[in-house]
Amino acid sequence: MRRPFGSGSRSPYPTPQLTPPSSASRAFLVSPKFATDFANALVAQASTSRLLYAMTRDRQLPKFLAKVTEKHSVPVNATFLVAAISLILGLFLTVLPDGLGAIAALVNFGAPTAFLLLNVSVVWWFIVKQKSRRWFVHLIFPVLGFVVLAFVLYNARVSAQIHGVAWLIIGIVVAVVLYKTGRMTNPVPVSAPSETR
Predict the structure, then answer these.
(1) What distance in Å separates the CA atoms of residue 58 and residue 114, rounded to the nearest whole number?
(2) Fewer CB within a 10 Å sphere, N or C end of the chain?
(3) What's the rounded Cα separation, in Å, for the pair 99 and 177?
């Protein structure tokens, strides 16, 4: 009588022997990841420098960040500043035990927070200010987006929530100071036509 499989009997099928990947295989797997991260870092740095330039143009940041190159119209000082801060933080966080995880959690908390406030601004601007009647576009969809992002933020790491809320409070304080000093300008022209259809 045959014994059931698992009661000390040997497997009737050959067991595959797993071998560690070679150096070429590792390079092949790591290269796309490295190229993607490098491209994303360049895009993030370029967009952040443009954001700093726009804020400087509106008199919300020091004037030296508004310098642009004559040939390509690139905000050179803002670009170098963002690169220096990214390099210093990157090197510093690699020393900490969970530094990279903390900054990744903070970024994952900050981006949904920005989009959450964007949904609030859409409802406030179009429904409250402009009296829009496009309920699906200007009310229902932003509310649904707000609910989804609020759920994501609620389930984020506690450390990311603390740091994210701290940065949000700092941003609100800076916005209040800029508004009180007359440097908080309205990016939307007063004569812009309202969308009420």
Answers:
(1) 20
(2) N
(3) 31
| φ and ψ at residue 130, rounded to 5 degrees | -90, -5
The domain ranges of the chain are 25-95, 97-197
The candidate with the shortest Cα–Cα distance to 117, out of 62, 167, 53, is: 167
d(CA 2, CA 29): 45
Coil, strand or helix at 68 = strand
Q: Are 30 and 17 in contact (CB under 8 A)?
A: no
> Nearest Cα to 156, choosing from 121, 116, 96?
116
pTM of the model: 0.62
Determine the Cα–Cα distance for residues 11 and 14; give it in Å rounded to an integer. Answer: 7
